[in-house]
Structures are given as structure tokens and as C-alpha cells.
Amino acid sequence: MKLRKYALAVSLAAIGTLGLSFTLTAPVHAQAKPKAQAAAAEQFFPVLVYRTGAYAPNGAPWANGFVDYLKLVNAKGGINGVKATFEECETGYATDRSVECYERLKNKGGGATAFQSLSTGATFALTEKAPIDKIPLITAGYGRSESANGAVFTWNFPLLGTYGVGADVLIQHIAKKEGGFDKLKGKKITLVYHDSPYGKEPIALLQERAKMHGFDLSLLPVAHPGVEQKSTWLQIRQNKPDYVLLWGWGVMNSTALKEAQATGYPREKMYGIWWAGAEQDVKDVGEAAKGYNALTLQHGAEPNAKVTKDILALVHGKGQGTGPKEEVGQVLYMRGLISAMLGIEGVKRAQERYGKGKTMTGEQTRWGLENLDLDQKKLDDLGFAGVMRPIQTSCLDHMGSSWVRVHTWSGSKWEFSSDWYQADEKVIRPMVMLTSARYAEEKKITPRTPEQCKQ
Amino acid sequence: MIYRENGQFKTSYAADQQIFPILQDRWAILGILVFAFVAVPLLADEYLFRAILIPFLILSLAALGVNLLVGYCGQITLGAGAFMAVGAYAAFNFFVRVDGMPLVGALLLGGFTSAAVGVVFGVPSLRVRGLYLAVATLAAQFFWDWAFLRIKWFTNDSSSGSVSVSNLSFFGFPIESPTQKYLFCLLILVVFALLAKNMTRGAIGRQWMAIRDMDVAAEVIGIRPMYAKLSAFAVSSFFLGVAGGLWGFVHLGSWEPAAFSLDRSFPLLFMVIIGGLGSIMGSFFGAAFIVILPIFLNQMLPWLGALVGVAISTAGVSHAEIMIFGALIVFFLIVEPHGIARLWSTAKEKLRLWPFPH
Question: Which of A2, A9, A11 is CA-nearest to residue B356?
Fold first, then answer.
């Protein structure tokens, strides 16, 4: 009996030392490798994913699309001959694990190119770290709205759209339905949002719009992970708002739709952000979600796009696919794919300046992302015709474009139901400038001047 | 053989009452301190600092706080995360709203605020105990989660509820690089650990333990339960508040209320239970177990898989990590219900009799 305890203590100590020596030596290995591989020219993309946990159903297709696109790039010969390498790290949508993953991957494979965390909470934490490590953060369709101002947020790239854009377009669309902004007066609009930095991002803009047009905005938060919404929808039944805006993620979206069905709130009056408009959100609800609308970050489900077919042929066709084949072309899969494409194109643009066929550092990639210019021809070549519109970034505009469409669930698939919208610069720009100036003041950052931008 | 106290005579009360009465222990602790302060900054790289050592130090401090309350005073709490949150947000408000507030001042004021809040939420402990008290402290968790999400004043009217700090310094030294952060956390931890150790050896610690072991008997011999229990809540919350401040200021830099949710409270309680209730040493063991093991498993499994030529998917690793971690917790609780600290002291006992333990 006592011998056993003794043996246990010894083995415990052995495990401890083994563990310590492993963690001590592991980073050394990671640092030793890139030197040996530098000859083959590789570009390392860290991939922060969540394939487990409450948000896995939505996180997994995004990750699969992201990784599949990197594989497609390699199948087509790399980025001007430079092979794209990647490593996944599981975050579980938790901020602290995301930070750990960031620290783990930032020096691997010759240095991380750009981080994409797919979490607004993590973006807040990483925003503080990226300038020190000189690694750009791409937050396509999420992140902090004010980071569109690249003069202050040098390293953040909320490409394609921010939540400010999303909220603005939703109000525009509703105004159009009602027949003009003046008709919004006295209307009741309710925002049901995920109670996290993600869900709170649009509030400021909605309040601004509410002041401008005189509609009545009420805010209903839903706690993580969002399966408990009975009281929220009870309030909606009592208030009978004219429109419900849904700022949900993961299981919260399908729960909201089920609750809407249960309380009899018309789904046609519900509008989701682009993170609440994927197959995963409506699939379980099926026919009952018919008529539900959501924004699209330019693209919807794109089963017929050229890039989708390329993936099926060159990646899945060779047995290299990351996820199930049926997923290719779905909304969130495409979102991941586009996110990866933007990172790759940033590197490509940087190579034009710093030397083709070379590995780009984070700093060089940042320049590439800031001077991104994807015109229609380039997009067509990449196979993104019809998937997205041209995008052009600059020092002051890290967002690039703000085109948004609305799509509607028909009961079996997503169909576009509106024209293209663009966020109203007159509303968004002053807010972005104001909040980013406040951030700059808090952090004692001097915004870059136009001259510094040219460097 | 080496670890033997023969010939070490105590000739004064001071010698008899010191923290480490055995010479070898004193040397070992001194060695560990020198190692931590001098050797680690030279050896460790940035990843080790930021992802492992700094969280370990801060959570050790938090575990110390929980141990004082749960392990020494016997009052179960599930609101540890809430007190960390109070400390972090109070420190943030002092730091942002008061001009020229030094970092240490903000952290300590955050700790005192947390202590005051701890006393208020400790009041139910005068009437209810055990599991019922755990449920009562859960109220603190939910209340403060709600407060920091809803009341904009606490977050300095930040639109998304996420707050951030920067430009930290300590008596003129900047706290920016991982090494500086590590040393700062280590310094605070050493001071607080010494404080905790001495408190538990002194009158107040004895009162707590008397309350823990049998509160009726303690009352009979003249210990005031109200004073003992509430002081335990205050001191524990103070520790947790400072730890929360460090977690927000030094480790995360930018945080939201979710950083101190119930998911933070439970691991803190587990740390104390696995590490050893009523043991300062145990707090460190528990923190190491909970902080380092998941990350270690997460990195080791793909490496092991590669060794035998199997690629494990990211999701697979994550699932395996949770399963192995859970299994290990159960294993330790079955093999040694008194925690890793007890294993440690058993090993020490054996060493004293080595090579002929009986």
C-alpha cells in the first residue's frame, strides 16, 4: 500500500519533469525548423478555429473553407511559387484560448502571415498584441467597427464590412420596405443580440439611426450560448415590434427561429446579420424558417461559382478535402474561403512590391493588405465572379468595400431577395472617426499622416 | 539520507516557529526563488511566458485566495470568478478615472473593493453552510456577470462592453515585455504567498481552521464566527481581486465580462480541491495542473500521433484533451482525495526515512 503511494509520487514527479522539458523544448524545435525550410519558400498561415464547443457547427465549415482554399492555392502552384503552409489551433470561441493559440503560432513556420480569429472578443484582445508583434489581423465581416480607420488601427483589417455596415444596411433595407426613411418614425425595432462584444457592436449605430429617423429601438440581450430565449421572446410577444434584428451566432440563431415560431412572430419580419444567415442556422427549423431574411457579406451560398468547382475538382477530387463534400459552397464555407483568399491576395500584393516568389513577413503582408486592389478581372481569374465585388483598400479605409445584399430562406435554400446596398458613409464615417480617435487618445497612438501612409 | 533533520537543533522560539524549520527546505525554497527570478527569464521564450507562466502565476494567486476561504475556513464558494471580475473592473475604473493612478495602486484598490464586496456576499455564510452556501455565492457570480454586462458606467461607457488598458509601469519600470510581466506577477505572487502563509499560521488562520473543523466548538471556546467567516471572505476576495486585476491588466490587456464567467470560477475550485484543501503549496500544484496540463496535452497529442504516423484532427485533439483531463481529475481524486499536496508531503515523509521507509 505504502509502496504504491511512493511509486505514485515518483511517477508523478517524472510526468512533471517530462512535461516541463517538453514545453521547454517544443518552442526550440519550432524555431529551428524554418531555417531549414527557408530554401523552399513557404508562407505560414495560422488558422484559429473552433471545431468543438457550442459554436462548432458554425465554426467548422468556416475552418474547412479556409483550409480548403489554402490547399487549392497549393494545388495551383502556390502564391507565385511560394507554398502556403498552415497549422490549426482550437480555440473553442474562448478569448483566453485564442490568445494562447496566437502566442503558440505567431513564430511558427517562419512567422505568421496574418491572424484571423473568427471571434470579436478575441479580436479585441489580439488588437493589443498585433502591433507589438507586427502581424496583421484580418477580420472579414467581424471585429471592431472603428478599426476600419487604418490610420489608428494600423494592423486591423475588417475587410468587406463591419457590424456598423451591417446595421446600417439593415435599416436602409427596412426603410425601403416601408417606403422611405420618413416612414420609420414611430416604428418599433428590436435587436436580439448575443451578449458579447460581437452582439454589442451594432448598438451604437442603431441608436444613432434611431435618433435620426425617430424609430423606437429596444435591446434584448441573450446570454451565451443562446439556448435560453424564452423570456426574450415573451417580451417580443408583448411589445409586438415591427421588426426584429437578430445578432446571433451558433445555436442562438436556430433557437431564435424556433422561439419565433413558438410565439408566432412572423419570420418575414426577422432580419439577421450575415453570421445569422447560413444553412446551419435554418436547417433544423426547415420549413418553419421560411421567409426569414439575413444579410450576406456579398456572397450567399455559391454552389455554382467557379472557385467552388475548382475546390471540388482539385481538392475534394483528390481526396484532400477538409470537411464533408456537401458543405462546399455553403454560406459559412464560402465565408472561410473568402477570408483565406483575402489573406493570400494580401501576400500576392506584397510580393509585387517586395519580390515575387519570396516569403512575406507580417509587416510586408500588412502593406499588401493596405494596398489591396482586386478588380473584376482579378476576381474572375480567381474564380470569384459573381461571388464578390471588387475591393480596394487604402490607409484610411481598411474595410475596402461595403456591399451587402439580403437573402431569404425559401424553406430549402437561401435566395437573394434584394439589390446591392452600400453603407451610408455619412452616417458611418463620423462614428468610426469618433470612436477610433477616442481609442487613439486612450492608447496614446498618433494617427498616421497621409505621408506616413505612403511608406 | 540527504533530506534529514538530524543535528538541526532549535534553540530559540524564533527558530522553532519559522515557516520552514528544516534547513534543506529553506535551501530548496531559496533555490526555487532564485531559479524563478533569475534563471527562468534567461531560459524561457515568449510563448512560455505569455501562454503558460504568466497565467500560471496569476491563477496560483487566485487559487491561494480560494484556498484561504474554502480550504482554511471551510466556506465553499462558487463565486471566485465574480470577485476576480470585481477586482479587475474596479482596478480598471481607478486606473482610467483617476489621473496618475499607479498600476500597483489601482490593483490594490481593486483588491480592497473586491474585499468589501466579498464581505457583503459573505453575509449568508453566517446562516447557511456547505452546499447551501455554495448556491448563495453563485448569486455573486450571476449578479456581477450581469452588472458588468449591463451597467455601462463600470466599463467606462465602452460600446461593446470590452475594456482595455495599456502603458503599464511599476515605479518607473515599464511592464510591456513578457519578461517584465512575468517578473511583476512573480513579485506580487511571492509577497502574497508569504502573506497567506503567515496569516494561516497566525491567530486569524487558527480561527478559520477552528471554524472549519467544527464551528459550534469554535464558538464555545470564544471564537467569533462572524468575525472569522467575514474576515476569511474579505481576505480571500482581496487575493482574488488582485488576481483578477492582474489577469485583466497584465495577461489579457483587453477583456470582457466573459473572461470572469462561471467557467473561471469552477476551475479555481477544482484547482484547490485537486491541489489540496488547506495547503498553500497545494494552490500552486492545483494551478499548475489546471493551467498547464490542457495545453500540454493539446500539444503533445499531435506530436505523439506524428510519432506513430497518425494525423489527429484539431477537433480530435480537443476532444481527447478534455477526456484525458477529466480522467486524470477522477484518477487523482480516487488515489489521493486530499490532493496533490498530500502526495507531496507523503513523499517528503518517505524521504526522511529513506532508504528504509516503513
Answer: A2
**Interface confidence (ipTM) of the complex:** 0.78
Assigned fold of A164-298+407-426: Rossmann fold (3.40.50)
Q: Are B51 and A104 inside 8 Å of each other by CB?
A: yes
B318/A90 touch (CB, cutoff 8 Å), yes or no: yes
Partner-chain contact A124 B164, CB within 8 Å: yes
| DSSP reduced 3-state for A360 | coil
Q: By the 8 A CB rule, do A71 and A333 touch?
A: no
User: Are the beta carbons of A64 and A322 closer than 8 angstroms?
Assistant: yes
Picking from B160, B176, B251, B344 by the largest number of A CB atoms within 10 A of its own CB, the best residue to mutate is B160
Instruction: Name the residue of chain A whose CA is nearest to B300's CA.
Output: A22
Classify strands A391-392 and A373-374 as parallel, antiparallel or unpaired: antiparallel
Domain range A35-162+302-402+432-454, CATH class: alpha beta
Mean pLDDT over all residues of chain A? Answer: 86
List CB contacts of B17: < 8 A, sequence separation 6 or more: B201
A9, A88, A96 member nearest B346 (Cβ): A9
Q: For an interface test with B, which of A29, A100, A438 has the most B Cβ atoms less than 10 Å from its Cβ?
A: A100
This model's pTM is above 0.95: no
Phi-psi region of A298 (alpha: psi -120 to 50; beta: other; left: phi over 0): left
B305 is written with which cell numbers?
500521433
Positions of chain B with pLDDT lower than 70, given as ranges: 1, 159-160, 357-358
